[in-house]
Amino acid sequence: MLDSQVETTQLQDGLKLFSKLKSLKLSGSLIYNSSHLPIEIVRIVHNLERFELRRMLVKEIFPNEKLINVEEYRNIRFEPSDLSLFELPKLKHFWKDDYKSTSSLKNLASLIISGCGILDMLVPSSVSFRNLSKLEVDKCHRLTHLLNPSVARTLVQLKRLVLKDCKRMTTVIAEVVEEGNEEIVFSRLKYLFLEDLSKLTSFHSGKCIIRFPYLDDVTIWTCPKMEVFSLGIISTTNLLVRDLRIHHGIKGSRYGYEDSNYGYEDSKVVEDINGIIRQAWEDIYGIIQQAWEDNYDTGIQYLFTEKNLEENQSDHSSSCVEE
Fold this sequence. Notes:
Blueprint: E1 2-3, H1 15-18, E2 23-27, H2 39-45, E3 50-54, H3 71-74, E4 82-86, E5 110-114, E6 134-138, E7 145-147, H4 149-152, E8 160-164, E9 171-173, E10 184-185, E11 191-195, E12 202-204, E13 210-211, E14 217-221, E15 234-235, E16 244-247, H5 273-322
């Protein structure tokens, strides 16, 4: 663990020692006012396989804009297999638009991003994630979508997808008209978890055919505006009803909504995930309506009881005054 507040010039003598470094966790302080990684760190990151960056004010990950035109660093490639970014409140993007090294993520197998509040785009459409197996994103409140279809089609190795608490996210895969409605296949995805996405309306906002041949574990928790999974055809040939869990955000409240099979057999393959999501919403509407009907008269009676009590107390006070 290196502290970014330490004078980075102290690393100069250790560059040879760090030349074979494979894993680095760089933890700083939000009062450390630097928008870029220290130059001495940039010199060694190209060898890293695992890189974690936490609590810094960097605006981009790599490279330092001061080094883009420096011959010594122009051909440096940052190609980790495991990248974790935590609490980077000023992070806007991974690199400047004029830095064309999209190959920097070609070996990435795990990407975790948390607490990057002004990150407004995960990656441009030119990026390929062909080796990515785990993608987790939470508390990135400026993201309105996670991926566009062209990037989603490169996720041929993705096994785990987790999205949580992104307040502006309306869809996971955005609709891009000029790309048409070509098929998207998540050929290895097994686990999908969506939680606390208050504006999410769908997984895909377009009409692309989406296939999940190995998906067998899905949780949709507290996504109150999600009434459809996708507008196109969805294939989930390995997902059983009992492994699809939908919670509408009122579990644990007075009229809590518990897991249900929505009228389907638990061991049956999910053939229409849109239908199950709609049925879940119909169930919750029914619960709310029934709760209102059951308690409407009681509520009115309670109000009249309180009113009568107040009047009686007032009459009693008046009588005492007269006496």
